[in-house]
Fold this protein.
Amino acid sequence: MKIKSIVLLSFLLNLFFVTNAKTIKVVTTTTDLKSITEMIGGDKVSVMSIAEGYQNPHFVDPKPSYIISLSNANMFVTVGLDLEIGWSPQLLTSSRNPKIQKGSAGYVDASEGVGLLQVPSSINRGEGDIHIYGNPHYWLDPLNGKVIARNIANGLERLDPDNKSFYENNLQTFFSKINAKMQEWQAKMAPYKGTPLIAYHNEWVYFERRFGLHIVDFMEPKPGIPPSPSQLVKVIKEVKADNIKVIISSPYFTTSSSDVVSKQTGAKELTLATSTGGFPSIKNYFDLFDYDIDHLIAALK
Amino acid sequence: MNKLLIVLLPACFFCQQLFSQTDSTATDSVLLKQITEQMQAGNPQPAPQTNRSPRNSNPDIGVVADFRGSYISEGKKNFDAYLDEAELSFQSVVDPYIRADFFISFSRDPITHKYGAEVEEGYLTTLTLPAKLQLKVGKFREDVGKINPVHPHALPFVDLPAAYVNYFGEEGLNDEGASLSWLTPAKSFYQELVFQATSGASESPSFYRGDNNRFIYLAHLKNVFTLNDNATLELGFTGISGPNDSSANTNIAAADLTYKWKPVQMNTYKSLVWQNEFFYSNAKYASDEAHNSIGFYSFVEDQIAKRWFITGRYDYAQKPYNKNILEQAYSLTAGWYATEFQKIEIEAKHTTVNVEPNYNQAWLRWIFIIGAHGAHQY
């Protein structure tokens, strides 16, 4: 009798949870993917991002708590291009969730269809952290946001075809908003076309090309290799020669080497956000560009 | 020739159709639209490079080399230098249901100084079992606490803790069989229960691979609590039972406690790990005598800068065959991590044994990796 009632209870509990599982549980690797998924999925999704917006997305510790989220997820969205190679494959295997493994309906690679930059013809680790498929920081071009959104919408429509028109409508709204904001951003940045800059890490190429900036050099001598004294000397010379006014960095790099260059040359140091949530005021993907563009212009003025 | 053409042409056409079908996703039209927009906007934009580098169906292949220099204050030969191990790894998903991981080790025999190859690990892992279950089958490093599942090159010190070596040997408990792991439904913390049944360790001091039908059984309960965004606490319990070299049983109970701190924002610059493992062994022998012994170690690994790690460790170990022989050791290791693919470590260790003179040891270890390098466990 006791066993029967336990079985019945667990069955009812299961039924309760199944009938309440209306939202699609999505886990994204980064906050930008989370923001875009929320805009496309609206109230039909609940989204969790593994990396924080102020965290280096190359280096995320695969904490077991992420495995719990992944094991219960219906969909997984990744930046791809090996950006998360050091941590996401292991988390996916440990999640033991067949719905979100590569090749399953719930696996979304946001980079599909993105026009990639800096695709190497061969790989040699002597060049530092080079990505075999190309520079993976493509979300920093707002137009690539559209491709990301299209991929996410495709994923949601695969899992929930009944609400296809809902996702398509949200996608069109997102496209329109990007188009409108792009005009605003382009207009703001127009006077700064060709402005030379120094960046800490090679993660701005898509932003640079979209808004016509010119990154002359990096604080890192090679991607992923910490700034060396000889690189600082080289950068100081370049800053002086090209009259570079601003050194841009990201929230997850120390400023000690930029401090040196700044002191020697008078160039301003500016920490820009690389992702949604990079600073508390950046609540979504649009805020990211608002923040970066406004702060860059303020520093260049 | 004509016949060949007749066969090949439709085949080519079919292939072309197949590929064009798989390529014509909705993202293409978005891409086209994007390119059109860019051209209309008059914005000079480099042509998108879509030719992703060719990849083939080979598994991820890597080689980890472990070069060492060593010093010991006792004996005739005090200094030595050698390539301790070259480890080849081949890792890949097999099909939609399983993945496979192989580690082939070419290591130097400490006595004969000759190199021999062996399968260090070779196992499959299921990806699609229901009920949060995962099965591992093959030869693998068993789930005893925190040191045993980790390949030595990934540890923050050169030598292994004395208690661990006493019970499991320099090679660790690494054996053939099956492992079933279950992710429990706990939501507020991570809980995993693992059962392993293996045929008998070949080189472990505690267990013996006999010619009868007895196996080693192991259970491990892993609990990881998230304390805050930057810190976790792991508490694990392990029980092992299996035949020893006198056809009786050895039972080992182990517990591990690990605190990890790593600030999310600056996680490549600072971190701290405090790890402890405690072992209790009850070894019965055919003569009906039983030996009980304990051992533990505790270490703190402090990342003091982006590339610098300092690790201090204390070892306490009773000999499994005689608990009155007590070995204690203090060691300090400094590690310089050039990149994810190269590190140099220097370790100094002072050992006291209550029945023999104290001695000192030192090592230099240079780890370098080419090819793919799989992610380490958290």
Observations:
- Chain B touches chain A through 60 residues (CB under 8 Å).
- Chain B is about 10% helix and 55% strand.
- The longest helix of chain B spans residues 2-23.
